[in-house]
Amino acid sequence: MTFPPDDEYGELLRRALRAEADSVVPSPDGLEIIRGRIEQRGLRGLRHLLWRRVGAAAAGAVLVAGAVVMIVPGLRDQVAQSTGISNAGDEREDNRDTSSVIRPPNPAEPSRPVVIVPVTPSPSRERPSPTPTPKTEATTRPSPSPSDPCVTPTPEAGVIEPDTALPPTCSPTSVTQETPVTTPSASRRPSSPPRTTSAPPVTPSTPPPAEAATPEAAAAPSPSPSP
Amino acid sequence: MPPHDSEERKPPEDDERPIDVTTETLVADRSLGTVPVGWDADMAVTALYSAHYRSLVRLAVLLVRDVASAEEVVQDAFVALHGAWRRLRDTDKALAYLRQSVVNRSRSVLRHRAVVEKYAPKGLPDAPSAENGAIGELERSAVIEALRGLPTRQREALVLRYYGDLSEAEIAHAMGISKGAVKSHTARGMAALRMALEQFS
Fold first, then answer.
1. Which CATH number fits the domain that encloses residue B146?
2. Nearest-CA distance B35 → chain A (Å)
3. How many distinct structural domains can be found in chain B?
4. Arithmetic mean of pLDDT, B162-184
5. B53–A31: do the CB atoms touch at under 8 Å?
6. Residue that is last in its domain, among B65, B97, B123
7. Angle, helix A8-22 to helix B41-64, in steps of 10 degrees
8. Would the keyword Transmembrane turn up in this protein's UniProt record (chain A) (predicted)?
């Protein structure tokens, strides 16, 4: 002991503590209670381990199922696109065409233009394909999608030919509603002479008339041609 | 047997492990905390229970002032020892582990009790029992009441010293404090106890 010698209060405290402690008689079944608690804790640990394993198995099954769900539709689409028959009347095809993402034409679909052509001349479908953004004003030039058979972007600088000779797939109403002077339409043949009958050809320096509100008309005086 | 055994302790025989020890000196008996190497947790718990359960319960009673809570505290300490038996590096310190666990859990009980008593309705004070008529009983009650009025750390230090007969190092280990703090708590506790007893007398 490194304590100093106990004074009288220390001895008094020692006697009191021993007397108080001796009056305590623990229950005789303490060891049984301890063993019971140890068993309960062991069972609880095993139960927790079991639940962890069950949870891990369930999580693994969910992951596998999710992976299969993610993979199988892709394979299904691939099979459908390779055949090209099952998705002809599907709405997803229309949604895919009207999306802002311009996709190259699929050469593996020979029968597809026949299905899509009646839908193409509609005004809602014409606008996104020649002009990707509506903010293009007179200085911007429409970049027609090569997938659209009605539009072939072959304008030349200073020479604008309102070509009325459209492919037979385009409906004539969509062409006649517009003035042929400002419409840079369509499949343009550089070798053919201008056949303007209603209005003279518009030079690039000419400001656009009232038809410039339409993106097609605004794109007409664009001096920078592109093949 | 650990080399720091006190001289006044009588080293027990290895073959004569007491089954039921009733004296409070076993709280400080380091030799009985020694568990032979190779014992599993069940055997160690059984041996330690036989040697130290009662004394540890009495120690806990002095700390938590409740027999039921003291028994629960000690039982929890044994259960924790059983769970931590494989991680126990030195099985000779099983008793020290139990003692420290009892002290820590007694603190938790007191903390929980303080919170409960804070929001619980106040009851009537304890009436003195009939056996308190004797002078010794009055003195003892006065000491115990004065001890209960001390802060927890001071009470722990005094109980571990005057009931457990532990050294400064053992008290410091059991309480998780330094030896200087043990000295400080002991001196302050004794001063407060002296003042309380002088007022009582």
1. 1.10.10.10
2. 18
3. 2
4. 93
5. yes
6. B123
7. 120
8. yes
- Does B65 have pLDDT greater than 90? no
Which positions ≥6 away from B64 have C-beta within 8 Å?
B70, B73, B106, B109, B110, B113
Per-residue pLDDT at B85 = 87
Provide the Cα torsion B146, A8, B25, A33; round to 10°. Answer: -10
Q: Do B76 and B50 lie in a common domain?
A: yes
pLDDT category of residue A208 using cuts at 50, 70 and 90: very low
- Residue B160's pLDDT band (boundaries 50, 70, 90)? very high
Tokens of B10: 């009588």
- Asked if A15's CB is within 8 angstroms of B167's CB, the reply is no
- Residue B75 maps to a domain: yes
What band does B113 get if pLDDT is binned at 50, 70 and 90? confident
Q: Which residue has the higher pLDDT, A208 or B60?
A: B60
Based on the domain organization, do B138 and B111 belong to the same domain?
no
Beta-carbon separation of A13 and B45 below 8 A: no
Residue ending a domain, choose from B123, B146, B172: B123
Return the residue of B nearest to A14 by Cα.
B162
Cβ contact B162–A17 (<8 Å): yes
Q: What is the distance in angstroms between the Cα of B132 and the nearest Cα belonging to chain A? A: 12
Residue B94 belongs to some domain of the structure: yes
B88 and B53 in a single domain? The answer is yes
Answer yes or no: is B52 within a domain: yes
- For chain B, say whether A205 makes contact (Cβ under 8 Å): no
- At B140, the amino acid letter reads R
Quote the pTM value.
0.50
Q: CA B102, CA B113: separation in Å to the nearest integer?
A: 16
> B86 and B148, same structural domain?
no
Structural domain boundaries, residue B68: 16-123
Looking at residue B118, what is its pLDDT? 79
pLDDT at site B6: 40
**Residue B191 and residue B138 share a domain:** yes
User: B57–A24: do the CB atoms touch at under 8 Å?
Assistant: yes
User: Does residue B76 register a pLDDT over 50?
Assistant: yes
Beta-carbon contacts of residue B95 (< 8 Å; ≥ 6 apart) = B29, B30, B32, B33, B48, B52
Please, is B166 exposed, middle or buried when counting C-beta atoms within 10 Å of its C-beta (0-12, 13-18, 19+)? Answer: buried
Q: State both tokens at B145.
A: 């009441």
Residue B115 and residue B138 in one domain: no
Residue B11 inside a domain? The answer is no
